[in-house]
């Protein structure tokens, strides 16, 4: 009697899970080969099969045993409810969620990277550095992790240490405009203005409509003594964003000095 329903229920479970079992390349595998949340969809068929089995067992019980069936059902539902409550608590905060991820999947570099971002956003860049470093130990080819580690180091005033990570980020992904801007900013802080200007130029080729980038180019050009070109960049920045106060103030200052 149960052969066909069992085959159907388990077959549905496998068929629904099959696309994410690793037979097909998908973007999520960049981060981890573990994605157990996909079971949430496919497990419905297995749950339906278990409920049907329980219902059939209850019907076949004699009256004297049915009360035990009710007790068993209540116990199962209580246990499942407690497990759901405990699991839901993991999602109460981003930090708890990613801590749970790394506890269960220690090779999930993206989880360490997200923990680092969480620490950085909460004002704890020192803790963020450790998580980004762990992410890079697992996946040294992550341009995002190199960039994020560098930003945490910059917040801590460790500019010299940040530069190699930003250089590695743009080596891995030459079109990573944000990393190039961050590298330019770091080099500018170190007084390497010509190198900073070069990074801003390369970032501009990727993102030509960034008003902040034109403003940064203007600052670098002004520092290099190329005032007419700096004015042009400030004007472009204001054309793209008329509310950019820094560019407006710089432009007014340079025009007054001409």
Q: How is the topology of this model organized?
A:
Layout: H1 3-17, H2 39-60, H3 63-90, H4 94-104, H5 109-121, H6 125-138, H7 143-155, H8 159-172, H9 177-189, H10 193-206, H11 211-223, H12 227-240, H13 245-257
Helix pairs in contact: 1-2, 2-3, 4-5, 5-6, 5-7, 6-7, 7-8, 7-9, 8-9, 9-10, 10-11, 11-12, 12-13
Rg, Cα atoms, Å = 29 Å
| Class per helix and strand makeup | mainly alpha
Q: Tally of extended strands? A: 0
Helix percentage range: over 70%
What count of helical segments does DSSP give? 13
Strand content: under 5%
Helix-strand pattern: HHHHHHHHHHHHH
Measured distance between first and last alpha carbons: 94 Å
Model regions low in confidence, pLDDT < 50 over at least 5 residues: none
**Globular, elongated, flat, extended or rod-shaped: what is the shape?**
elongated
Average pLDDT number: 86
Sheet bearing the most strands, described?
A: none
